[in-house]
């Protein structure tokens, strides 16, 4: 996200009078990196800096132990001139083979972050969650410094986190206690930001007192970066290009896409799947078993500008979920970024998932029930044969574009901050 003096983003942000209010963003992940969490926080930090707020970003510096190169591969990216102060706390250890030990070390690291916050003395602290372990140290620092704490809840703190420890009752109990402490800290926050309506409904039902503190601040997309380039989206004649970017998290069911590729290949349709991000070895092994490894093109880790170029050459993005109610509020940043580039989306998920409802109601892609391979195959075949329908979906995405501008979310955050300082 390079910002130039003539860019409308900079011109709009610089239009207000100086503020000089000190704001600290805390994120429990080593930055910069290309993940959605950092793209969101970086955008907010830059935008508020251009609005003349005095902005700090606090991040850990991580040392990985007992980890594969695959786990450690988090390519960083510099996006133009730095407008805010980025501060890294003392070393945080991440032990890949011990989730419990890593969680404990993250809590310790959060206490170091808390000490740093006490030295900076911000008036507003914005904590990005997950990881949840930074909530305790950040909350204590906000209380001691009398700063307002805003929790930016990108994913819910839910009890399903405990399932990783289900084999060991003692660890399961310990994690439940930790979750309870974190929920208690949420009650004390000055404001809770959430990224989807379903998440708000869940929080209101499970934690009614939070309802008055909750504010919808969607991920959206940075429209100055993610945009149509005016190129043809069809690629090579006869080749239909599917696209996925990001990590293969536990709720992403890519087996259905691989099985669909296998069926399409048997029908002699030239369909390729392009992947940008980290390639899951398990996925590649499954692709080999199905005989579709030659239908997958791995692009590696790409910069934002490279992603935009690639997305403008694709035909259809894919976003397949398992039928797991714990992820019904999922509305990832990539979803908005696909739309911003005019790339239709095939979502495979239960209809009670918010992402499925948006795709179906607004006609910006294709919806298939979760794990319905035949629906996915039929949808791709139809778009493969009817390019006019594919272009109509792309036009729907572009017409939807103005409503997903991340600048609106940044302005909402400023409005919330002003409510604490006026």
UniProtKB/TrEMBL annotation:
Pfam families: Glycos_transf_1. Residues 240-395 form the Glycosyl transferase family domain. InterPro entries: Glyco_trans_1 (IPR001296). One of its GO terms (molecular function) is glycosyltransferase activity. SUPFAM superfamilies: UDP-Glycosyltransferase/glycogen phosphorylase. The keyword rRNA-binding does not apply. PANTHER family: GLYCOSYLTRANSFERASE WBBK-RELATED. This is Glycosyltransferase.
């Amino acid at each position: 996200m390079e910002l130039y003096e003539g860019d409308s983003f900079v011109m709009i942000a610089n239009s207000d009078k100086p503020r000089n209010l000190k704001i600290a963003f805390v994120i429990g992940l080593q930055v910069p990196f290309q993940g959605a969490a950092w793209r969101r926080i970086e955008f907010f930090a830059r935008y508020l800096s251009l609005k003349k707020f005095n902005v700090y970003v606090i991040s850990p510096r991580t040392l990985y132990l007992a980890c594969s190169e695959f786990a450690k591969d988090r390519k960083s990216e510099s996006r133009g001139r730095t407008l805010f102060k980025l501060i890294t706390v003392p070393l945080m250890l991440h032990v890949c083979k011990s989730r419990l030990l890593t969680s404990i070390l993250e809590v310790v690291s959060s206490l170091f972050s808390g000490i740093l916050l006490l030295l900076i003395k911000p008036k507003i602290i914005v904590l990005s969650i997950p990881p949840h372990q930074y909530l305790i140290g950040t909350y204590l620092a906000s209380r001691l410094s009398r700063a307002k704490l805003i929790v930016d809840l990108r994913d819910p703190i839910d009890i399903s986190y405990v399932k990783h420890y289900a084999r060991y009752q003692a660890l399961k109990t310990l994690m439940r206690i930790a979750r309870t402490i974190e929920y208690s800290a949420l009650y004390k926050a000055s404001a809770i930001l959430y990224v989807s309506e379903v998440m708000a409904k869940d929080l209101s039902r499970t934690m009614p007192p939070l309802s008055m503190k909750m504010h919808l601040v969607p991920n959206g997309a940075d429209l100055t970066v993610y945009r149509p380039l005016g190129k043809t989206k069809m690629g090579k004649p006869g080749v239909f290009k599917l696209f996925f970017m990001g990590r293969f998290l536990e709720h992403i069911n890519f087996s259905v896409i691989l099985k669909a590729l296998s069926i399409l290949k048997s029908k002699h349709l030239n369909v390729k799947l392009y992947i940008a991000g980290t390639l899951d070895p398990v996925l590649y092994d499954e692709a080999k078993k199905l005989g579709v490894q030659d239908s997958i093109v791995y692009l590696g880790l790409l910069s934002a500008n490279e992603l935009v170029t690639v997305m403008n050459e694709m035909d259809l993005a894919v976003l397949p979920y398992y039928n797991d109610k714990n992820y019904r509020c999922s509305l990832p940043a990539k979803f908005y970024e696909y739309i911003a580039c005019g790339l239709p989306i095939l979502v495979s998920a239960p209809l009670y998932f918010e992402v499925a409802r948006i795709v179906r109601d607004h006609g910006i892609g294709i919806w298939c029930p979760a794990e319905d391979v035949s629906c996915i195959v039929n949808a791709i075949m139809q778009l493969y044969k009817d390019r006019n329908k594919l272009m109509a979906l792309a036009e729907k995405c572009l017409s939807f574009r103005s409503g997903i501008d991340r600048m609106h979310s940044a302005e909402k955050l400023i409005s919330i901050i002003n409510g604490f300082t006026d």
